[in-house]
Amino acid sequence: MLAAFATAPNPSDPLAALEVGDRPEPEAPDGWTTVTVRAASLNHHDLWTLRGVGIAKDRFPMILGCDAAGVDAEGRDVVVHSVIPSPDWSGDETLDPGRTLLSEVHQGTFAEQVTVPARNVLPKPAELSAAEAACLGTAWLTAYRMLFVNSGVLPGGTILVQGASGGVATALVALGAATGYRMWVTGRSEEKRQAALELGAEAAFEPGARLPSRVQAVMETVGEATWAHSLKALAPGGRIVVSGATSGPNPPADLSRIFFRQLSIVGSTMGTRAELESLMALLVSTGVRPVIGRTLPLSQAADGLAAMAAGDTAGKIVFTVS
Ligand SMILES: NC(=O)c1ccc[n+]([C@@H]2O[C@H](COP(=O)([O-])OP(=O)(O)OC[C@H]3O[C@@H](n4cnc5c(N)ncnc54)[C@H](OP(=O)(O)O)[C@@H]3O)[C@@H](O)[C@H]2O)c1
Hints:
The protein is α/β, with parallel strands linked by helices. It has helices at residues 44-51, 130-133, 136-150, 167-178, 190-199, 227-233, 255-260, 273-286, 301-309; strands spanning 2-6, 18-22, 32-41, 62-63, 67-71, 77-80, 83-84, 100-101, 113-117, 121-123, 158-162, 182-186, 203-205, 215-220, 234-242, 264-267, 292-297, 316-320. Helix 4 links the parallel strand 11 (158-162) and strand 12.
């Protein structure tokens, strides 16, 4: 079957590790189901995999992709939940120390077929297209948990999102704006800031800009490049919710600011199956839909990955498969 896969880790030139070609069809073990993929979406996670981050060397070659929408073995339209818990795990899957995401241990979704535990497929609401549904499992689910589960801020509060055009950033702005938060954004270009305003952000700033007032929470996925600004942007008692570190994981901590202003830093990763279900219900009831900046056939996966690596994003990049 056609698949986009990482041949071997390449920390300095991730795109050189990508191959689009033939891979064996997967066989579903007991309790798993095979999904015929209709659409899959690209996440920064796929670039990390090509670099060899978050994946053991002996797992290559590895089909990329965390997210998909497709048709399961029973012929139902489904959305894939990418967090694969240990077989005997119950409760919040994101807290299982043995959990993995698709494409870390098990082959990913950038293929004509993917196998997942039966509990990892959810019915796709008819209101969402396959391409829209394929955006939800990672970026949108992560944004949902950051904002509604981990920010501690109620609608009406002001939230700063670092980064404007990425998958998680656009999901945060769209979800927050639709549910009554005042969403502020930083973006690296005028075009990206303008797009954030059109998506519902109340204000958009250059990276590091002095804000009109301090905010209750900052949504961080950028890391080193924006961390100092995130700490300065918080009102006393404010909170950074961090789920990524695209520009580097080791910013200066600025401990005195953290204790003196009584700031909190909360980690957030993916979301539960139940949260994915709630996210889909929210999209159906509000009419909010994932922002898709580019749609490409899977055979052109290299173009999508090159765009993301260059920071040339405008929401999600979706691959159509069958
Ligand atoms: N923990 C989790 O469960 C989880 C889930 C999803 C994602 N993540 C992580 O979150 C990060 C974002 O993921 P994504 O899929 O949304 O990525 P993406 O689509 O490639 O978006 C990258 C984002 O980073 C922003 N950015 C700002 N300054 C940057 C800089 N100096 N260098 C690079 N990027 C910069 C971009 O903002 P501009 O618009 O201004 O360019 C853009 O919004 C990744 O590190 C990813 O691994 C973690």
